[in-house]
Amino acid sequence: MDILSYTPGQKSTIFLEVKNSDGYRANSLTAPFISRIFAFTSTDGYTLYDGYLKTDGYNQPFTKVAVGLYFAQLTLPKLAASIGSYLVDASYTSPIDGYVKTQTYQILINAPYGNFSVGT
What we know:
Layout: E1 2-6, E2 11-17, E3 33-41, E4 45-48, E5 63-66, E6 69-75, E7 84-93, E8 100-109
Parallel strand pairs: 1-8
Antiparallel strand pairs: 2-6, 3-4, 3-7, 5-6, 7-8
């Protein structure tokens, strides 16, 4: 699992590398896409997060950069309550066996400059 660190409201870039049985890059048989996002809550652990829209980059296909190399971008939540840990699943179809595989990324949203406050 790759771990990425950002601040609220930033655009996150996720790279996906697909390989064949010899370890060389190979194209996914279908367009890879962000399939699910989980947000950490102190009461339930990680739960499915449905606060993203297509305009935020969620559930859109990755863009192909080169053979077997793709990227996707999504805009992170902007509010103070969004600080925390998120799991992002990217799904693709393996060129090895034709099955749908999932690559998971952890995105940590940290307070800018290490501190965050709410004023009245």
